[in-house]
Protein: FAD binding domain-containing protein
Amino acid sequence: MDLNTVVEVRDARRHTPWRPGDGWLGGGTYLFSEPQPHLRRLLDLSRMGWPPVQRLPDGSLEIAATCTIAQLSGRARTLDAAAAPLFEQCCRAFLASFKIWNMATVGGNLCNALPAGPMISLTAALEGTCLLLAQDGSTRRVHVVDFVTGAGRKVLGEGELLRSVTLPARALAARTAFRQVSLYGLGRSAALVIGTVDPVDGSFALTVTAATVRPFRLWFPLPPRAAELRTALARTVPDAAWFDDIHGLPAWGRHMAFRLAEEVRRELADEDRAGVREEGYLR
Structure:
């Protein structure tokens, strides 16, 4: 779609004082999908030269905001980490063509802050931290679960930029389980639930997205029983946080999130029991 209110596109490598009507341009798959009457100038991030995905010395993984879904998927295939399959599962949760995969960015998905954003699901479940750059050059870090505050809402200030998301090495080593459901055969995610088991202390975490207006992450020191998980989920997610749109009523989204959460819990619990059997502790 032509944005007929935009009168200028500038290279973001050249620092330009922020002014009303400015907007960051990443992949542009959302930006050019509908009218943006508030925009007058776009600051293009496509030539920033940030490495799409890189492993840091401490073993963590830094994903640039400009990393495309195709780049992330390709890198995940060679990623030596227990959580590597989760990357492809979340990439496949997009209702998108190969053209979108090659243009849409991880940063754009997070900054749109839509409930069904699968990059929000991925990075929230793996304890991601956002690096934000302000116009005055200062930086701050915000956990992904706190970055998105509601449907279409995030903590970015005026002119603030999402630079990257970093996933810690310990989270990358976690065992994971993934469940996703759509109301329609080719519909967007109506509920997406991810479970992780910490490789060091065996703690269990459950992340719920798509059915809720923002990501919710529940943590348990030990894998919970079914009733414990259900009670915690009901207590953590308030009634007003269940998302209401044409892809599913709040009651249905809540029901499916609870159902998928139990499937995730059972899958990871079964893996634990299988591991114990292999060690010869169960007969």
